[in-house]
Design a protein that fits this description.
about 100 residues; alpha+beta; 2 helices; 4 strands; about 30% strand
Length: about 100
Amino acid sequence: MKKTFPLEVPNKKTPRVLDSIKHEVKKYVKRERNKKLPEGMHYWDFDCRVGTDSENAEATHIKTISKAIDSAAESQPSSVYVEVLSKAMKRGPKKAQQS
């Protein structure tokens, strides 16, 4: 998902618009995680970028995407760019435990 969300929506306040953006991102992530994994892959991973536009978007982890959306909206831009791309991943070898 690569999308630019407007922050100035008629008849809606900015905090409600931010909530709807976060909800749409969470819905997308849930939908992607429910897709069937390709043969030999173990889990879905996500490459995320958030910013005021696509050129200024910074990479972020999927768990901190809500905070990144809030921080991008703090400077009061007219829109927020969100990019979330899914990719199938394999788990690495287990690390030996140290005693």
